[in-house]
Specification:
The structure holds 2 protein chains of 2 kinds.
Chain A (H helix, E strand, L loop, with lengths): L2 H17 L2 E2 L2 H9 L5 H15 L2 H11 L7 H15 L3 H11 L2 H4 L2 H17 L3 H18 L1 H11 L18 H18 L7 H17 L2 E2 L17
Parallel strand pairs in A: 1-2
Chain B lengths: L4 H4 L2 H14 L3 H13 L3 H9 L2 H11 L5 H15 L3 H9 L3 H7 L5 H15 L12 H12 L3 H14 L3 H9 L2 H8 L4 H15 L3 H7 L5 H10 L5 H17 L7 H14 L5 H14 L3 H9 L2 H9 L6 H15 L3 H8 L2 H9 L6 H14 L3 H5 L6 H10 L5 H14 L7 H6 L2 H8 L5 H15 L4 H20 L4 H15 L11 H16 L3 H14 L4 H11 L11 H6 L4 H14 L7 H10 L2 H6 L7 H15 L7
The chains are: A mainly alpha, B mainly alpha.
Chain lengths: 242, 659
């Protein structure tokens, strides 16, 4: 047989393997999963990490006493962090700034972008409350100098001040700034900065583990039929679809 | 509008209340301090205006008179002082001038950790400024105190220790004493701590090992497995700043001894990590690209690795993004410049992407002088591509006009960078030089050749020299009309030898080519030719002598009258019989290039077809030049050897009078 034909045959075989997927039954799968060992402490740490990062301070406290898992952070700081987050979410930006500064003055002093976004949020709240004159004065005195320091701040500032130019702000091109999502965005930026200043990751680990699970399943789908988890909430294994 | 929040916060009002609180004491102090702190944090403008109004002395006086049990008050004082010192040199100065320093140091031994934190943060801010006083490591007590800071179980205090080192350690002796005191080891231990501890430690670690091979070989490097492994590991850290600092440390170790970082794998890895850090929009990204630029500078091997890691594509994509800050652009252009300094493959990628080239040329008019300089250097190195240069890729209005504008720049470094780029661009394409001449470039080059700054003068003459290279007669006349014999003469006699060299090379290019070009040095009674002759008799630098000799060599290639004028310069009648001709001195020079130039001149003078050739040969012989030539028939330099034989052959055609 010539080399040419042998190559063609090999190619055909590979092709065939690719199209007919391997099937793994539920029994086989569960047996394989049973062989994977996970330590209880690791689970507890994951849960604690989730509670701490998301700011469930009471739950974390309770979980500590019940499971004996030590958080990697002083739980009191969670309360402070949550208070800051809540202040921004409810539009009390000035209050939030004071709280952050009490927590650690370095955060806003060394993070111009976050500082600008908080000041911008303050301006948005003034405009929302119809304090037009005050808003203009604030924009000019507090925000304009930041715009001079940084071109992208200037553009954001211009967009924010544009809120004053529209009769029907909600339906204007800059209406999104008044949306509640803008507050949430700012709040989560402050939250992340506080966590970082405490050497804590800004995102909990659990969601990324689940993301990895879904990704791995998608990869595996191309090669095999197996009992996959589609519903993360129940985490039930579904029978392979052959 | 009386209720307006910002008007009650007017600095003048707050200052008034602060002063009276400082004087009267009581509850008011805490409230007004907190208000002040919240006004200035993050706000540079406010800091400056409060400093101007004298807020700092009031705060420091509250601090100095506060009881050690007034924890909250101490914290607010220290926090305000720290913020005044954060990022504002005027604030640091004000804080130091009012004597806050010893009070802050006292706070470090306070029983309440919150007070310690605030004090340490404020001191750290002070040490992050370049106006802070230098810490004397040679004072034993100081070193003990520093070590005690690094040993404390508080990240702000250890961070303060690290900042003191980063700020004050400059000399090799300081690096050594810190290494010997075990500081490096402590810093390495701190790498296992919190993010801020790790970054502060890496930074001062870098300060201690920077350009100090002795310290590196003693304490770090691959043979110190643990440190080495930790640093490599940290290049994969979750935090961008940590990754950057780990790269910086490894690069410093490599720079101290190239044998320290030979693994191509690690080298490539560092390039990739730095490239990835480009995505950080802030300071880390800016510093990463500058670090990359210095990493690959002067090392063609690393440039190749960077090229293979698709650095050019990544940078070109990145620089087309809008709104890049000045520092970022500067770093990108410097990295591209370094990549293009040797490798043609890098140049052609940029040249084949019109957009990328547009970004570079557009940056020639950037508001920041640093960016303008970097864009010039980048353009210069890209234009090292002979292929594209000869194809006239750069002699377009889009490139030339902004470059000419930069010759008028208020910053000298920009002018010099633009001159260097122009020098390179005008060198090799007869076809396209007229655009530069017509655009008024020559006029400004001539102006700059009269600059008081010798670097500007040098580079202006250099550019003119290159512009004059193989230029057509019409352009040449235009340039000469602009320059005039008088200016050129004074450049030939410039106090700086480098300017003399370039000016002579310029004259050399001027008289090169058609015979009537030679006439230029004879205008105004041979002013220029006499100046060249004078330099040949007086200059000591061989670079100057070589260029001067080539001027005479080119003139001697002309008509009889020209040759006679050269003879006049070489063997002036006024000189007495026993003065050795400069020609002999040059033929005896150790520098082969100078010997070559001298012999070439003799060849031109002795071409037998000339009417006066015989007379010249006789004169040369009488001056001992022919016998000197005979000594050189086996010159070690092949070029010299060949010309000597030609010269001797030509003089022999008139018979050998030596016997």
């Amino acid at each position: 047989m010539s080399l040419f034909w042998s190559v063609i045959r090999q190619l055909a075989e590979t092709e065939a393997m690719a199209t007919s997927k391997k099937v793994i039954t539920r029994d086989e799968w569960e047996k394989k999963l049973n062989d994977v060992k996970i330590r209880k402490e690791d689970m507890n740490k994951l849960v604690m990490n989730f509670l701490v990062t998301e700011g469930y301070v009471d739950a974390a406290e309770k979980f500590r006493t019940e499971s004996g898992t030590e958080p990697d952070i002083d739980l009191a700081t969670i309360t402070d962090r949550m208070a800051v987050k809540k202040a921004v979410q409810s539009g009390n930006v000035e209050d939030a700034i004071e709280k952050v500064n009490d927590l650690n003055p370095e955060i806003l002093d060394t993070n111009p972008q976050l500082f600008f976004h908080l000041q911008q949020q303050r301006l948005i709240e003034l405009i929302r409350n119809g304090k037009i004159e005050e808003a203009l004065e604030f924009a000019q005195e507090e925000l304009a100098p930041r715009g001079e320091e940084n071109q992208s701040f200037l553009e954001e500032l211009e967009r924010t001040v544009a809120l004053l130019a529209f009769e029907d702000v909600k339906n204007s091109p800059v209406g999104d700034l008044l949306d509640i999502s803008q507050r949430l965005k700012t709040a989560s930026e402050v939250n992340a900065a506080i966590l970082t200043s405490q050497s804590h990751e800004k995102d909990p680990k659990l969601p990324s583990l689940l993301r990895m699970l879904l990704w791995a399943q998608n990869q595996l789908d191309e090669k095999a039929a197996y009992p996959r988890i589609t519903d993360l909430f129940t985490a039930t294994l579904e029978d392979p679809f052959v | 509008m009386p209720g307006s929040a910002s008007s009650t916060h007017r600095p003048e009002g707050l200052i008034e209340r602060l002063r009276s609180a400082a004087a009267d004491g009581g509850e008011a102090k805490l409230k007004v301090l907190r208000e002040l702190k919240n006004q200035i944090i993050g706000n540079r403008t406010k800091k400056l205006s409060y400093i101007k109004l004298g807020a700092v002395p009031s705060v420091v006086s509250i601090l100095s008179s506060a009881s050690s049990s007034a924890d909250c008050l101490l914290v607010q004082c220290a926090a305000s002082i720290g913020s005044f010192a954060c990022g504002v040199d005027a604030g640091v100065k004000a804080v130091l001038d009012t004597g806050a320093f010893p009070h802050l140091i006292n706070l470090l031994s306070h029983p309440n950790e919150k007070v310690v934190d605030a004090g340490a943060r404020a001191l750290k801010m002070i040490y992050q400024s370049k106006v802070a006083p230098k810490y004397d490591f040679f004072e034993e007590k100081n070193m003990e105190f520093l070590i005690s800071l690094l040993d404390r179980n508080n990240e702000n205090v250890t961070g303060l220790g690290a900042s003191i080192i980063t700020h004050s350690c400059e000399t090799n002796d300081e690096q050594k004493i810190l290494g010997d005191a075990g500081v490096l080891k402590k810093l390495i231990d701190l790498l296992g701590g919190t993010t801020s501890q790790r970054d502060a430690s890496l930074e001062s670690f870098a300060t201690i090992i920077k350009e100090n091979p002795e310290v590196i070989s003693k304490f770090v490097g691959p043979e110190n497995g643990r440190t080495w492994g930790t640093l490599i590991e940290l290049t994969k850290d979750r935090y961008p700043r940590t990754r950057l600092l780990a790269c910086v440390c490894l690069i410093l170790i490599k720079n101290a001894a190239p044998s320290n970082l030979q693994s191509v794998g690690i080298r490539t890895k560092l390039i990739l990590v730095l490239l990835e850090l480009l995505d950080d929009p802030g300071q880390v990204g800016d510093e990463a690209v500058l670090t990359l630029s210095s990493f690959i500078a002067d090392d063609e091997g690393l440039q190749k690795l960077a090229f293979e890691a698709n650095t050019i594509d990544k940078l070109c994509d990145h620089m087309q993004k809008e709104l890049l800050q000045a520092k970022r652009l500067q770093g990108i252009f410097m990295t591209l410049a370094n990549l293009c300094s040797n490798l043609e493959c890098c140049r052609s990628i940029i040249l084949q992407s019109p957009k990328a080239l547009n970004v570079v040329t557009a940056a020639l008019t950037h508001a920041s002088a640093d960016v303008r300089v970097a864009a010039c250097v980048c353009l210069k190195n890209i234009s090292r591509s002979v292929k594209y240069l000869s194809a006239g890729h750069f002699m377009t209005e889009a490139v030339i006009m902004p470059l000419i504008q930069l010759l008028f720049d208020t910053s000298t470094s920009v002018q010099v960078a633009a001159l260097c780029t122009i020098s390179n661009l005008v060198v090799d394409f007869t076809m396209h030089k007229s655009l530069f001449v017509q655009s008024g470039g020559v006029k400004q080059l001539v102006q700059l050749s009269k600059s008081m700054d010798s670097t500007v003068r040098l580079n202006a003459v250099w550019a003119l020299r290159n512009l004059m290279f193989l230029v057509d007669s019409r352009c040449k006349e235009g340039i000469f009309m602009e320059l005039r014999a008088l200016t050129l003469t004074s450049l030939v006699c410039d106090p700086s030898a480098s300017v003399q060299e370039q000016a002579l090379a310029l004259v050399c290019n001027l008289v090169n080519g058609p015979v009537d070009s030679i006439e230029y040095v004879f205008t105004e009674d041979g002013l220029l030719l006499n100046a060249v002759g004078r330099q040949l008799w007086s200059a000591s630098k061989h670079e100057v002598l070589i260029q001067g000799m080539y001027v005479l060599c080119n003139v001697a290639s002309g008509q009889e009258f020209h040759k006679e004028a050269v003879m006049q310069q070489l063997l002036p009648q006024a000189s007495s019989e026993d003065t050795q001709s400069i020609m002999v001195t040059m033929l005896q020079s150790d520098v082969a290039q100078l010997r070559t130039a001298a012999v070439w001149t003799i060849v031109n003078l002795t071409i037998p077809t000339g009417a006066g050739a015989l007379a010249r040969v006789v004169k040369l012989r009488n001056a001992g030049i022919v016998s000197q030539l005979k000594n050189m028939v086996n010159d070690p330099c092949l070029d010299v050897k060949l010309r000597v034989r030609t010269a001797l052959g030509q003089s022999m055609t008139f018979g050998d009078f030596s016997t």
